[in-house]
Specification:
Chain lengths: 353, 353
DNA sequence: ATGAAAGCGCTAACAG
DNA sequence: CTGTTAGCGCTTTCAT
C-alpha cells in the first residue's frame, strides 16, 4: 500500500541527470558516451530506489515484449509436461524472457487453435513454442505466419517450422542394448496396439538393434496390447507362455512393463533372476516404485524445452532469415535400476537345456 | 511476412469514424452514446480487418495488464501440478486474463523468491498465484505487498493472504468410510514416516473417522514408513503379520498402497477378497495400473487452480478492501475402483473364527 | 558528454 | 452523438 512504483524519472531526478542518460546507462547502449562517474551515480540511484523498468512500456516502444508464448497440449494429462515447461522457462529466463502459458486441448491433427494464437498475438509475444502431446504432424493457424515458432515433439504438415524431438530410435537402442549387453539373445518385446505414431518406429528400432547385434528377429517374440498395465499383462502372458519364451523383454512403456511384472510373478518368474526387463519413458511413479525398480529409458524432456526456447529466442533475435537448423534431435538416457540381470543358467541360446 | 499489424486507427479509417468511437464501441463503454448503425459499422470493420487490440498499449494506459503471474514450485516433480495450472489458466481466460508462468524451487519455508516476484512486478501482472508443493506455512517477499495474491495449498506465516486448499481430513474420511461402509471393523493404516505436514493430520482424521463410526482405534494397526512403495511394503509386512491383522487398510498415498499390494501378494492375500485397500492421491499412473485397480481419493487440483484464479481476479477487480473469504477449502472425491470388497468370511469381528 | 522531444497504440477526459 | 487531445513509461533520434 505504501510504495508507489518508481519510474525512470525518479531515478533521473535522484541522480541529477535526464531520463535519456538513465535509459542509456541502464541499457548499456553501445554508442552512448556517458562519463564513468555519471554512470555510477545513475546505477546507484537506480538500485537504491529499487528501480525496475516497466516492461510493458519498454515493449510498446521497442516492439519486443520479451515474452514467449508457450502453448501446451494436455498439460494436465501428459506425464512430465512440467519438465518441458520447466526447461523452457529456465532457458527463457536466462535470456531475459518470460513465458506466457496457454493450455490447449489436442484435437485431431490440428495444432494450436486460431483463438489461442490470437490471444498470444494480441499480447505481442515475440514467438511461440508449441508443446505437443502426441508426436504427430499438425496444421498450424494461418495467423501464426510471420511469428517465429518452434514445435516440441511434433512436425508441421508443411514441414517448414523448426522442431525439437527426442531420439526415440536411439532410446530404444539404448534399452535393447542394455539387454543384449547382459548376454541376452532371445529378447522379446511388448508393443502397443494403440494408434500411436511411435508404434511402428519403436518396433523398427527394436528390429534394427537386434540386427546390428547379429541377433535374429522372431515375430512371435513381439506381442502387442493397449499401452497400459492391463494390456502389458495380457501380452506378456502370451509372450511368456511361448514354447520358447524370451529371457529378456523390452517394453513400449513403463505401464506395460508393470503388467509384465505381474505376469512374471504369476508364472513364478523372478526379475531379474529368470527374466530381465527394461521399460521406456521413465515414469518415476511406476519405474521407481516397482520391485525390483525398473531399468528404463528417459526422454530428455527438460532439455527439449530448454533447447526449443533457445532456438526460438535465437530466431527472435537473429536477423530475420538467419534460421538455424530446422530439426534438433535430443538423446535419451538409460536409467539403470534393478530389472536387468544375466541370462538364467537353465535358459539361453539352447532352450530348455 | 505480409500482414502488418492492424491498429485501432485502421479500423477507425475503415469505418469512417474516430478512434475514440472505435474504442468505445469495442469496449462497450457504458456512458458512451454511439448510434446503433455506427456501432455496426465499427464492429464490422474491426472483424473484417481482423483487429485485435494491442494489449500492451492498453495495459500501459489502463494500468491493468490482464495478466496474472503464477509461481509454481517444483512444477517438474510435483504430480499433477499441471492440473492446478490448467484450472487457473482456464478460469483466468474465461475472464479475459492470461497467465505468466514462473517455476521456482521450493526452499525451506520460503515462498517465492524476491527475484521471481520482481520479474512479475516489472511485467506489471495484476496479481500473483503461488502454487506450493508442500502445504506448509511460508514467508512471502516484502515486495509482494500491495499486489493481490492467493496461495494454493499453503498458508503464509502472517496468515494474511487468502488461500485455497483441499479438504484433506474430509478426503481421509471418504477413504476410511469406503472401508467401514463395506463392513470392515478392523481397519489398519499405512502412514508416512517422512517429515510431511500431512502426516499428523492424516492420522488424526483416520482416528476421528473410526471414532465416529463407533470403531475402536488400535495403535498397532497403524504402521509407518517412507511414503514410497518400498516403505509401504515394509510397513505392510509388519501390519499383515500381526497376530490379528486388519481386513482393510487405508494408505497415506498410492505409492504406499502399491507396496501393500506386493506384501499382500507375497502372503497369498488376494485383493479385495482377503484384504481391502484404499489409497490417497489418485496417481493415475499407479492407481489405474495396479491390479486390481486401486480405489483412492482424488484431490481437487483443477478446482483449486480455478478457484484460486477466481479469487485472485475478484480481488484484482474488486474495490480494494473488499476482500472475500480468506480460506477456501475444496472437497476431495472418492474414485471407486476395484480394491474394496466385503469382509472375508473367515475373518471379521471375531478373529480367526 | 548530456538533454529535449517525439511517439509506440491505446483509453479517457473534455469539447463540440 | 462524435472528435480532439493528453498522456501511460519507456527508447531513440536529433540537438546542443
Amino acid at each position: 500500500m505504501s510504495s508507489k512504483p518508481v519510474g525512470i524519472k525518479d531515478v533521473a531526478a535522484a541522480a541529477g541527470v535526464s531520463v535519456t542518460t538513465v535509459s542509456q546507462v541502464l541499457n548499456n547502449v553501445a554508442y552512448a558516451r556517458v562519463g564513468a562517474e555519471t554512470r555510477d551515480r545513475v546505477r546507484q540511484a537506480a538500485s537504491r530506489l529499487g528501480y525496475g523498468p516497466n516492461r510493458l512500456a519498454r515493449a510498446l516502444r521497442t516492439r519486443r515484449s520479451g515474452v514467449i508464448g508457450v502453448i501446451c497440449e494436455e498439460i494436465a494429462t501428459v506425464p512430465d509436461a512440467g519438465r518441458v515447461i520447466l526447461g523452457s522457462d529456465e532457458a527463457a529466463r536466462r535470456r531475459g524472457y518470460n513465458i506466457m502459458l496457454i493450455s490447449s486441448v489436442a484435437t485431431g491433427s490440428d495444432g494450436p487453435s486460431e483463438s489461442d494464437v490470437a490471444e498470444l498475438l494480441d499480447r505481442k509475444v515475440d514467438g511461440v513454442l508449441y508443446v505437443a502431446s502426441g508426436r504427430r504432424a499438425l496444421r498450424l493457424p494461418t495467423r501464426l505466419t510471420g511469428l517465429p515458432a518452434v514445435l516440441v515433439d511434433a512436425d508441421d504438415v508443411a514441414d517448414t517450422l523448426p522442431s525439437v524431438k527426442p531420439d526415440r530410435p536411439g532410446g530404444v537402442r539404448l534399452a535393447v542394448t542394455a539387454l543384449t549387453d547382459a548376454g541376452h539373445t532371445r529378447v522379446g518385446m511388448l508393443n502397443t496396439s494403440d494408434e500411436d505414431p511411435a508404434r511402428q518406429s519403436t518396433l523398427h528400432a527394436f528390429q534394427d538393434t537386434l540386427a546390428d547385434d547379429g541377433l535374429e528377429f522372431r515375430g512371435d517374440l513381439v506381442q502387442s496390447g493397449p499401452s497400459t498395465a492391463a494390456g502389458g499383462y495380457a501380452a506378456a502372458l502370451r509372450l511368456l507362455k511361448l514354447e520358447n519364451p524370451p529371457t529378456a523383454v523390452f517394453c513400449f512403456n513403463d505401464a506395460m512393463a508393470m503388467g509384465l511384472y505381474r505376469a512374471a510373478a504369476e508364472m513364478g518368474l523372478t526379475i531379474p533372476g529368470a527374466l530381465s526387463v527394461v521399460g521406456f519413458g521413465n515414469q518415476e511413479m511406476i519405474a521407481g516404485n516397482l520391485h525390483p525398480a525398473l531399468t528404463t529409458v528417459e526422454l530428455p524432456r527438460y532439455a527439449m524445452g530448454a533447447r526449443a526456447a533457445e532456438h526460438l529466442i535465437d530466431a527472435v533475435e537473429g536477423t530475420p532469415g538467419t534460421r538455424t537448423a530446422r530439426q534438433a534431435v535430443l538423446e535419451c538416457t538409460l536409467v539403470q535400476r534393478d530389472s536387468v540381470g544375466p541370462v538364467p543358467l537353465n535358459r539361453g541360446v539352447t532352450p530348455w537345456a
